[in-house]
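TA notes, week 10

Several of you asked for a full example with nothing omitted. So below is the full record: structure tokens for the whole chain, then the designed sequence directly under it. When grading your own attempts, check the secondary structure regions first.
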């Protein structure tokens, strides 16, 4: 599997997003800070940059990104909004948004290691799409892991969005509604991404 080893702080600076969007509270970089060249970006460059930004935030590869676009295009409604809904409803993102882990990357690992149940059934696929009414919970065998014990004692690692409901005592969450672009905690020009893939 392809791995991007470029430092997180540098990529955050490149895409003009806060590291806190990814769950990193104290990441900064001063490298090459006085050598930023200002030049007018082409339309293609803006589209590509926004697509790369989306892939970086959600931790997906190009094949997954294109598949998400194609699925969103087949759905009714605005393609860009559909893309946001599909990406936000991924199980690895949902456990991150519930505050059960510190980053999406950690959420992906925890899901892969089968620490979560969806409606009482074990799911170990990070790209699994949750639906309205689904209940996501930590497996009983996994509740003694330090990260989950910390959440139970101190609360979620971040603010839980309005489309999710979190039960701290039971270490579980429920999907109340499907997410929209208004629920994002970062700025994403999804229209540029749609333009990029529609060529």
């Amino acid at each position: 599997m392809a791995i991007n080893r470029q430092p997180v702080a540098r990529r955050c600076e490149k895409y003009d997003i806060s590291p806190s969007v990814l769950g990193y509270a104290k990441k900064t970089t001063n490298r090459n800070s006085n050598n930023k060249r200002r030049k007018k970006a082409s339309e293609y460059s803006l589209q590509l940059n926004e697509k790369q930004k989306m892939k970086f935030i959600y931790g997906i590869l190009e094949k997954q990104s294109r598949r998400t676009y194609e699925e969103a295009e087949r759905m009714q409604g605005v393609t860009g909004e559909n893309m946001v809904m599909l990406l936000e409803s991924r199980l690895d993102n949902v456990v991150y948004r519930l505050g059960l882990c510190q980053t999406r990357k950690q959420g992906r690992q925890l899901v892969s290691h089968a620490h979560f149940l969806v409606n009482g059934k074990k799911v170990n696929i990070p790209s699994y799409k949750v639906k309205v009414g689904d209940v996501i919970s930590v497996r009983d065998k996994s509740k003694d892991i330090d990260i989950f014990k910390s959440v139970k004692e101190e609360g979620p690692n971040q603010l839980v969005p309005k489309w999710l409901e979190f039960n701290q005592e039971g270490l579980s969450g429920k999907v109340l509604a499907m997410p929209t672009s208004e629920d994002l905690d970062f700025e994403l020009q999804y229209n540029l991404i749609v333009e990029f893939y529609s060529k």
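The longest strand covers residues 135-138. Use that as a sanity check on your answer.
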